[in-house]
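Following the same procedure, sequence and fold were stored together, as reproduced here.

>
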Amino acid sequence: MALQGIGFLLHYLPPNLHLVIASRSKPELDLAFLRAKGRVVEIGADELRFTDEEVGEYFQRAVGLQLSPETIHALEERTDGWITSLQMAAISLRKCLKT
């Protein structure tokens, strides 16, 4: 029912109104007509996921440590490059370094 309402809204959305939809999975919405008009921007997991290089840079800035490439890669794989998991790892590491 909610998706039908959103679908209706999308069909009659004024050009000056922008709608942001965030979802853990791809919603069952017909966006073809908006895609054809160039009015859809989709950001998926691959665009949000940190690369090994970005993980290394994040830990350098957040914790002040230069991690080995192996450690960086292990962190990226274990967290799937998601910033929230990386932040939790950085907080934990920072606490360990203080003791």
Notes: The CA atoms of residues 37 and 59 lie 41 Å apart. The chain has two domains: 2-42, 49-98.
